[in-house]
Amino acid sequence: QVQLVESGGGLVQAGGSLRLSCAVSGRSISLHRIAWFGQAPGKEREFVARITWTTGSPSYADSVKGRFTISRDNAKNTVYLQMNSLKPEDTAVYYCAAKEVVTEYKYWGQGTQVTVSS
Questions:
Q1: Mean pLDDT across the stretch 18-27?
Q2: Is the Cβ–Cβ distance between 22 and 31 less than 8 Å?
Q3: Between β-strands 78-83 and 18-26, what pairing exists: parallel, antiparallel or unpaired?
Q4: How many CA atoms lie within 13 A of 43 on its CB side?
């Protein structure tokens, strides 16, 4: 099994910054990519950013390019999402998810709330 635990959410003002963490544990040897998704109230989860574990290569949703940065610390088995220039529309529950090479994102954390005030 793979376990993902998010942390770092909170309340920030527009223009502020926040760093989310996703701690990966369990049988994670086969994991290929880890991603962040955001879900606002009444809406479906949407892709925010992802990283390929072995190479560190990132990819981002257009809405967060230039503002968010995804990274990983191999020694700590942790993925981070540095969120800068936050906007009220970024308010959502942010989930960490992981996938193997040929699977969908099947491992999910419980989420961490990010609230951006205007």
A1: 93
A2: no
A3: antiparallel
A4: 14
Task: Please report the sign of the dihedral spanned by the C-alpha atoms of residue 61, residue 67, residue 73, residue 79.
Answer: negative
Pairing of strands 112-117, 10-13: parallel
* Sheet strands side by side (includes 2-7): 2-7, 18-26, 78-83, 68-73
**Tokens for 82?**
């540095």
The burial class, CB within 10 Å (0-12 / 13-18 / 19+), for 1 is: exposed
Q: What tens digit of pLDDT does each residue of 58-79 get?
A: 999 999 999 999 999 988 999 9
pLDDT over 80 at 28, yes or no:
no
DSSP code per residue over 47-116: EEEEEETTT--EEE-GGGTTTEEEEEEGGGTEEEEEE-S--GGG-EEEEEEEEETTS---EE---EEEEE
Q: Dig out the tokens for 50 from the structure.
A: 């992802």
